[in-house]
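Fig. S4 source data, part A: sequence.
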Amino acid sequence: MTLKHNVLFLFLIFSTLTVAQNDIGSWLIYKNKLKLNSKTSIDTQYQHRSFTLDFEEDQALITAGMSHALLENLTVSAGYRKIGALSENGMYQKIAFSTQLNKVKLVNSFFLEERWIGDNFQLRYRFGLTAKIPVNAKTSLSLTEEVFLQNSTPNFNQNRITAQMSHRLSEALQLNSGIMHWQFPNSKSWAFLLSLSHTINI
């Protein structure tokens, strides 16, 4: 599967969801990884989230942190995140464990987020599972489910199910495209995802 197939896949999903309903949004994401060495990196990310295709409702998420590989299949991360539209900021810690099942790579992750939303403090716990399936040397399919729980009522915060195609453009750049089903206690929506990941060796 080449890059043009990846773009075609994205276009078909986008067209289908647009016809099906008009409450689909879009997330445009840029991820930057500055590799300090083979185990440690500085990670930054910018997300522009739109909840409708006309961009009338949107918000920006900014994160910055560090990641370190304790083992070949075990990585820990920590950093800071901010959503200006929600007056939200706070810290996060993450641990990710990967294992190989034939050709499929499985990644289990756990996030702990300390969130200050205005004057309110909240803890949020994120449990994720990703299956990454190679298509060829440059392209792969990823399926992810992530459950968000919190220490306030309601305890269930949200659930995200995503399907993405990833294509390696070069040693430094990777393009990801796909869809996400986003469920809250009282609402459901879809989001179109497009992200560019940039890795720089320092």
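Fig. S4 source data, part B ends here. The chain has a mean pLDDT of 89.
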